[in-house]
Design brief:
single chain; alpha/beta; Carbamate kinase; 2 domains; 15 helices; 40% helix; binds coenzyme A
Length: 445
């Protein structure tokens, strides 16, 4: 019996998970994502899982370009050959002998990536096809040249990306694999920064997302707390020093530059975190840091299809006694009174305005922000929205009943009031046992 109960809960969890995921699956289908994978990620134990997840994204109809780096592998080859790797202003000086080792490392990694896609495919059910990988001479490069008297030789920068050819391959459901190499019209090969290349490819392809893997979960504030999201301006302020060559800094800079030049969203993810890619793309909470060009959180009137999302927000608070319980049926009838904040198709905050026309006032109720989004001014924004609605309706005041959030309402300009100020029909239902405090805010006309 106990086992049966447990099974049914798991089944319900599974059904809920699948339903929650489906809007993301639809919204990502047909979109173009550029994935930026440092060499350290390829050496990580989790690499094979990342490849499996990339294959899954491809099977869901997402157009993918994978750009990889090779720094630790190149350094290991230099060390084995006794070559003293020389950096100038953060760029490697690549002479002809070093360039051969760079090409060997990059080529070996390409084989490793192709093999990983294939081996993952063998583990998958027969029906799941491995995404066909295509690589080629899609990147034209030019030398960095001489900087402060130092010739960087075969270290190059991107001159042009054959974005139309790449887009054509993506149309044919091919997954494009780009090594950190470029070729010049003079027939030379150049060693490129994988981060610069991924950024440029994302911009030129007008990709929907750049996804940059690094050794940490994302970007952190001064207290070490992970930012779940950063606006472009906040990202710029977080960038730090130019001299930091860690893959973490490269990922942050790539996200910033890509968004600055037209990519709508960029994500930083930890390459050691199994499933981070799927969590970031298919769940409301994500796993890393998302950088975005502008505010994409939409405030709008709730619709009947939002009832599930609103219930997800309010039910935990009902269980704690913070909110009065509303059944699904009641919520379905009252949903028109709700305003919601939506992010990526998920409801992350809500508030309701119940009109009391006879008393020229409205009740503000059910103000909730999902725990992971609290402290960002979202409830205050929703309140402003509700105040504008109340003003349009010609109300003179908003009132609210609360047991545990008094100070938040005071900070939003509400004042403590007596039960007697409530409209008659509300007063008659006042629950003296619950003993909620009544707060009022005048609406400026
Ligand atoms: C109250 C609530 C809606 C605020 O959402 P939010 O989007 O984080 O709101 P804002 O960002 O505008 O305000 C955050 C501030 O409110 C403060 N705050 C949060 N809950 C509070 C509470 N119960 N009492 C007093 N202040 C509170 C936070 O500490 C923060 O202040 P700080 O930045 O100085 O630390 C959110 O905490 C919540 O959903 N709480 C549970 C539901 C609830 O109590 N709803 C109100 C009754 S209808």
């Amino acid at each position: 019996m106990a086992l049966g109960e447990c099974k049914s809960v798991n089944n319900l969890d599974y059904v809920k998970w699948f339903r929650d995921t489906s809007p993301y699956i639809q919204s990502h289908q047909g979109k173009t994502f550029v994935l930026m994978l440092p060499g350290a990620a390829i050496a990580d134990d989790n690499f094979i899982n990342i490849i499996g997840d990339i294959n899954l994204l491809s099977s869901l109809g997402i157009r993918l370009v994978l750009v990889y780096g090779a720094r630790p592998q190149i350094e290991a080859r230099f060390a084995a050959a006794g070559i003293d790797s020389h950096l100038h202003k953060g760029k490697r000086v690549t002479d002809a002998q070093s360039m051969n080792l760079v090409c060997e490392s990059v080529g070996a990694l390409r084989n490793q990536i192709e093999a990983a896609f294939f081996s993952r495919h063998l583990n998958a059910p027969k029906e799941v096809q491995a995404a066909p990988l295509i690589s080629g001479n899609f990147v034209t490069a030019m030398p960095y040249g001489v900087i402060d008297g130092v010739d960087l030789q075969h270290t190059g920068k991107v001159r042009r990306v054959a974005s139309q050819s790449i887009a054509g391959l993506l149309d044919q459901k091919q997954l494009v694999l780009l090594p950190p190499l470029g070729y010049s019209p003079t027939g030379e090969t150049f060693n490129l920064s994988y981060a610069e290349l991924a950024t440029r490819v994302a911009i030129d392809l007008k990709a929907d997302k750049l996804i940059a893997f690094c050794s940490e979960d994302g970007a952190y504030n001064a207290k070490g707390k992970l930012y779940r999201e950063l606006t472009l301006l906040e990202c710029q302020a977080t960038l730090g020093s130019d001299g930091d060559l860690s893959d973490h800094r490269l990922a942050l800079e790539a996200c910033y530059k890509a968004c600055e030049q037209g990519v709508a969203r960029a994500h930083m993810l930890n390459y050691s975190d199994d499933g981070a890619l799927l969590k970031e793309l298919f769940s409301r909470d994500g796993a890393g840091t998302m950088v975005h060009r502008d505010s994409y959180e939409l405030i709008r009137r709730a619709r009947i299809s939002d009832v599930g999302g609103i219930l997800d927000l309010i039910q935990p608070l009902e269980r704690q006694g913070i909110l009065v319980r509303r059944s699904r049926e009641r919520l379905e009838m009252e949903v028109e009174h709700f305003t919601v904040m939506e992010k990526d198709g998920a409801i992350i905050a809500c508030a309701a305005l119940y009109p009391f026309n006879s008393a020229n006032s409205g009740e503000l109720a059910c103000v909730v922000t999902a725990a992971e989004y609290q402290g960002g001014g979202r409830a205050a924004k929703l309140l402003k929205h509700i105040e504008r609605q109340a003003k349009k309706l010609g109300f003179e005041q908003l009132f609210t009943l609360t047991t545990q959030t008094a100070h938040w309402f005071i900070e939003q300009g509400f004042e403590l009031a007596n039960v007697a100020i409530l409209p008659d029909e509300k007063q008659s239902f006042y629950n003296y046992q619950r003993n909620s405090k009544v707060f009022v805010k005048k609406i400026a006309n």
